[in-house]
Task: inverse folding
């Protein structure tokens, strides 16, 4: 069956397409009687509006871009849920892209969203500086960028939603020390993102405070997956470096390490305690359940969406940095 268009409505009602478009957009300059005629005819003929075309006539696409390193774990999905909580009731649609921790793919995703003429982009980047030029280009074109969790270099004036990675990492490491642990491994995230450096610096500060810092206990994983966590801790054990606990950059790295410890019959937490940063549902789906710094992911998404709406309404409004609290959740792994 042929799709009914505005031109078909125009012919049926003997009205101009511009009048019909304005009525469908609830333009106050279209009188109520005419608007009712148009809406009744649209229902009778089975007209389904082309939302993209109508929104572009209003100056907005009513779409938001969402750029994240991965959608495999619950982390990005929880943030997305928060974004949807705010934007879906307002009629917005969300275009989701995944960079796979690759700055070149992230760049292509941003260019794609620019072609789609999105009203704003909410992004969790995979490199602090690599794509700064395209961030600046997109903002100069009038499209707001809102960053969450991982943020760009401070030279970029943008709105962002974060937690205090440095303080929360410090508190988690100090907790491990107070439970009697002295040989604490830190499984680092990529050195090219700021929160990875904030967490390792928090780790270092506390170990230096207690005079037990050992550079050999900092492990740089090759990536961010479960397998990378497993490989990193396997290499540490193969070097015969003694440790009694692990503080991982993310749940995925921690769980990968835990899997390998289980395979080697190393008891958790008796022999090795394990803690992480992120606090996704994964932390409570494993045995033993994982101690973690739990970020308010859904709320982060809601705040990011609200910041996007502020910028859509007035792109010259001041950028904001919203610092959210994260909670240390102690579970059986420690």
Result:
């Amino acid at each position: 069956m042929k799709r009914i268009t505005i031109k078909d409505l125009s012919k049926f009602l003997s009205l101009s397409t511009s009048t019909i478009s304005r009525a469908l957009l609830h333009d106050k300059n279209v009188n109520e009687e005419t608007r009712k005629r148009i809406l009744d005819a649209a229902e009778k003929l089975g007209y389904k509006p082309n939302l993209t075309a109508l929104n572009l006539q209003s100056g907005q696409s009513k779409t938001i871009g969402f750029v994240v390193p991965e959608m495999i774990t619950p982390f990005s999905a929880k943030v997305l849920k928060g974004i949807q909580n705010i934007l879906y009731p307002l009629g917005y649609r969300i275009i989701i892209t995944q960079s796979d921790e690759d700055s070149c793919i992230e760049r292509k995703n941003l260019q794609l969203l620019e072609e789609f003429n999105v009203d704003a982009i909410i992004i969790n980047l995979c490199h602090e500086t690599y794509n700064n030029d395209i961030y600046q280009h997109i903002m100069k074109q009038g499209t707001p960028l809102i960053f969450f969790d991982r943020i760009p270099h401070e030279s970029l004036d943008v709105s962002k939603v974060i937690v205090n990675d440095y303080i929360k990492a410090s508190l988690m490491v100090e907790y491990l020390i107070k439970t009697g642990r002295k040989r604490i491994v830190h499984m680092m995230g990529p050195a090219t993102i700021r929160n990875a450096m904030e967490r390792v610096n928090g780790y270092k500060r506390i170990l230096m405070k207690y005079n037990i810092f050992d550079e050999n206990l900092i492990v740089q994983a090759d990536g961010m997956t479960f397998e990378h966590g497993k490989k990193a801790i396997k290499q540490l054990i193969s070097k015969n470096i003694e440790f009694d606990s692990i503080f991982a950059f993310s749940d995925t790295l921690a769980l990968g390490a835990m899997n390998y410890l289980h395979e080697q019959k190393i008891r958790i937490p008796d022999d090795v305690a394990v803690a992480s940063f992120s606090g996704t549902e994964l932390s409570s789906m494993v045995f033993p359940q994982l101690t973690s710094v739990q970020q308010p992911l859904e709320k982060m998404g809601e705040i990011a969406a609200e910041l996007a709406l502020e910028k859509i309404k007035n792109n010259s409004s001041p950028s904001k940095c919203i610092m959210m609290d994260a909670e240390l959740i102690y579970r059986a792994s420690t």
The chain has a mean pLDDT of 93. Residues 297-313 form the longest helix (17 residues). The longest strand covers residues 63-68. The domain at 165-294 is CATH 3.40.50.2300 (Rossmann fold).
